[in-house]
Specification:
The complex is a heterodimer of chains A (about 425) and B (about 325). Chain A has about 425 residues and is α/β, with parallel strands linked by helices. Chain A is about 25% helix and about 35% strand. Chain A has eight helices and 19 strands. With about 325 residues, chain B is mainly α. Helices cover about 70% and strands about 0% of the residues of chain B. Chain B contains 15 helices and one strand; from the N terminus they run αααβαααααααααααα. In chain B, helix 5 crosses helix 9 and helix 10 packs parallel to helix 14 (about 285-310). The longest helix of chain B has 28 residues, at about 120-150. Classes of the chains: A alpha/beta (about 425), B mainly alpha (about 325). The interface between A and B is large, with 70 and 60 residues.
């Protein structure tokens, strides 16, 4: 049985929201209000004003994090994830409840906290490390390692203000990466920097997790979450709505998210280029069991159904689907021409379906782009803001799942192993 | 190997290396088996309990002491940054009190005829008082807005918040030390010999720093809640100087008001500096009252700071 590294009990955090927006109809009222304003503001600042509303950023959170586990905290913007991390990092105090932490906790809510643009890279390493809680001797010992990891050794004695933003982030992260607390709390750090840097961060975090340290991670990158963590918890409007295996929670989250929904209204969709008269009405994404879901597992089936409507008869040559990955690479294109060589006649309402079987994409988020064309003429097109998610195979398979780093597709490879007894020499 | 990787624009090699490495790890397993002896573990690991607090809180001296390296680095950063990309560098530390001495010498000494009532050369008389006062004014104005300036840090990482105003004061004390050199030069120039009174100087230096720490922590915690203090502080410091015997001698203060006057911590410190440096007799009762009020200011500042500290991250 593993020990509990972080025990959260009935945690709550209340913020006061100032209620404002009264309009004064007369000049006399406005002058009186202006004269009273300092008094009112003073009451507000001292917290005596009961006019303001209470807002619970977190409410009744109870959670145990076992030592040596990596827990992902996921949820929509404003769900309370960052507030939770701030309480764990002791930046802010809870309003109710308590947290017990066993071990040294290092938090990384931002890379480069305390960086000063006027200081050189070398100077900033020391200051930043001290702020993150590293001792001076520790930094001195690992200085070369930090510099090598950042890859900015040539510019160590240049003020950081002359660095590119990428270099600044790399330097900042390498300091943070060499922090060695028993419990590491990380907030969305992975969302900055380029793909190379993100891979580097992921690798480092994986190292940390595999060394038996406890990691708490907030991220919107579901592929990263799935590859790093075994367990996850889902926050919604300040409440804990689910704790469990990472694949269950990720699925629960993705299905609850409105930006990623199984049914999309296309009538006034923002992904349509300007000046195009809408023909597409809606898009439905279905899983293998005909359930609405924008999520598909590797090897599963996803079906797209497009509803189209036109008052005047429209004749189109074909309907084209394109799947693009997060790096902008087109994975494949498919068109109705592959099925039939006939024109599409649209008058009134009609639906076109397209099933893609045995999806062999590596886990991650993919964009869907589709257009109704008549030769070169575009009748209607949706270029962006339609997405679906590919999840890794299954939650408890012992097979190591491929990640975005391992390529674009998941090969259907068969491995066999034959041993041959070597004759002794 | 690492060097090559860091410079390769495509992370192909690295990504591969990552993947291979990962393969060898079945599932994250704690390397150290700690299940056997929980007692030992408890002793080794620090244990923190976070829960809501209310009211006045004591100061966590142990934590402050453990953070002394961070304090040093924050001061170091402050000093480094202040004179980066300036032509005169640390010369600015001297420039300010020297210019003030010259201007005051003309305005108060010549026009105001203050110099006539002072036995000593008026510039030395002025500088001996401006020395602690310039430090105090700089420290309080920097310390007072230090929390507002560090709000980025406050909302992103935890460390004892007291280090912020402390490091601002610490940064100014480097200038303080430099401006002592001018004092020595002036004493040589005007032929003022040091006396045994100089022995009390270290105590006065400490007293001045403690007063600056007290005022800075109090104003810093006030100004982060009430941003009005941003505008009040510069103005307040300007007026405060006239409540200290800087351009005039303390003998000008009516005897019956003297002890009330000494409630201003800096009144006793400034006068004490002048006496210690220039070999004038000390005004012990003034010194006593000022040291007591310095202590009260320091304790009040720290206590108020600790009380409102818990809100800093939310209102910063």
């Amino acid at each position: 049985m593993s020990r509990i590294a972080v025990r959260i009990q009935n945690l709550g955090k209340k913020y006061q929201l100032g209620a404002r927006g009264k309009k004064y109809s007369t000049i006399r009222e406005a002058i009186i209000e202006a004269a009273k304003a300092p008094w009112r503001r003073w009451r507000e600042l001292t917290g005596r004003e009961n006019d303001s509303q209470a807002f619970w950023a977190l409410r009744d959170i109870s959670l145990d994090v076992p030592e040596g586990s990596a827990l992902a905290i996921i949820g929509h913007n404003g769900a309370g994830k960052s507030t939770l991390l701030k309480i764990l990092s002791r930046i802010t105090e809870p309003t109710t409840g308590q947290v017990e932490i066993e071990g040294r906790l290092g938090s990384l809510l931002e890379v480069g906290t305390g960086f000063h643009l006027e200081l050189t890279g070398r100077e900033n390493i020391f200051v930043n490390a001290a702020i993150l809680g590293m001792s001076h001797s520790e930094v001195k010992r690992r200085f070369d390692e930090i510099v090598a990891f950042s890859g900015v050794e040539k510019f160590l004695d240049t003020p950081v203000k002359r660095y590119s933003s990428g270099m600044q982030v790399r330097l900042a992260f390498s300091v943070a990466a060499h922090l060695e607390p028993e419990i590491l709390v990380v907030d969305e750090v992975l969302s900055v920097g380029d793909a190379e840097f993100q891979n580097k961060c992921l690798g480092k975090m994986r190292d940390v997790a595999s060394l038996g340290r406890t990691v708490l991670l907030v991220s919107h990158d579901m592929a990263a979450v799935e590859s790093l963590c075994q367990r996850a918890c889902l926050l919604d409007a300040g409440r804990l709505v689910g704790v469990g295996s990472v694949s269950d929670i990720v699925r629960q989250y993705l299905e609850s998210t409105c930006e990623l929904s199984g049914e999309i209204d296309l009538e006034r969709h923002c992904g349509r280029p300007p000046g195009v008269r809408p023909i597409f009405q809606r898009l439905r994404m279905l899983d293998g069991n005909q359930g609405l879901s924008p999520v598909v597992r590797v090897g599963g089936t996803i079906r797209f159904e497009i509803g189209m409507h036109s008052e005047t008869p429209q004749s189109a040559r074909n309907l084209v689907f394109q799947v693009i990955d997060s790096r902008g690479l087109t994975i494949f294109t498919t068109s109705t021409l592959q099925h039939q060589n006939e024109r599409l006649e649209i008058h009134g309402y009609c639906e076109v379906g397209c099933s893609i079987q045995n999806v062999r994409l590596t886990p991650g988020r993919y964009h869907l782009r589709f257009a109704l064309r008549n030769g070169r003429r575009v009748l209607d097109e949706i270029r962006s803001d339609v997405e679906f998610e590919v999840l890794r195979l299954s939650e408890n398979s012992s097979v190591k799942p491929p990640t975005a780093q391992s390529g674009v597709i998941v090969a259907e490879a068969q491995w066999d192993f034959r041993s041959q007894v070597m004759s002794s020499v | 190997m690492k060097e090559i990787l860091a410079r390769t624009p495509e992370s192909l090699v690295e990504a591969d290396a990552d993947t291979w490495e990962e393969d060898s790890i079945e599932a994250p397993q704690p390397v150290v088996d700690r299940s056997g002896d929980p007692g030992r573990l408890d002793a080794r690991l620090t244990r923190i309990v976070i829960r809501p607090t209310a009211g006045w809180r004591s100061i966590n001296f142990g934590e402050l002491w453990r953070s002394r390296e961070l304090l040093f680095f924050l001061i170091w950063r402050d000093v480094k940054v202040r004179y980066k990309q300036t032509v005169f560098g640390a010369g600015w530390a001297i420039f300010q009190p020297v210019m003030t001495t010259i201007v005051f010498n003309v305005v108060f000494g010549k026009f105001g005829k203050m110099a006539e009532s002072v036995e000593l050369p008026y510039p030395v008389f002025l500088y001996a008082a401006l020395l602690p006062w310039t430090f105090f004014a700089g420290a309080v104005s920097q310390g007072g807005i230090s929390l507002i300036q560090s709000r980025q840090m406050i909302s992103k990482i935890y460390f004892p918040r007291l280090l912020i105003p402390f490091s601002a004061v610490g940064g100014q004390s480097v200038d303080f030390a430099i401006s002592f050199l001018v004092m020595v030069g002036m004493m040589v120039w005007f032929g003022v010999a040091p006396s045994l009174n100089l022995l009390l100087l270290p105590v006065l230096v400490v007293g001045t720093i403690v007063a600056a720490l007290g005022a800075s922590t109090l104003l810093a915690s006030l100004s982060i809640t009430y941003r009005d203090f941003r505008y009040v502080i510069p103005f307040m410091i300007q007026l405060w100087m006239f409540a200290c015997p800087v351009p005039y001698d303390i003998s000008r203060v009516p005897q019956e008001w003297l002890l009330l006057y000494a409630l201003n911590p800096m009144a006793g410190m400034v006068d004490g500096f002048r006496s210690a440096l220039l070999g004038q007799p000390f005004h012990w009762s003034v010194l006593g009252v000022s040291f007591a009020s310095t202590g009260i200011l320091f304790i009040a500042g720290l206590a108020y700071f600790r009380r409102v500290e818990r809100r800093f991250a939310d209102i910063a």
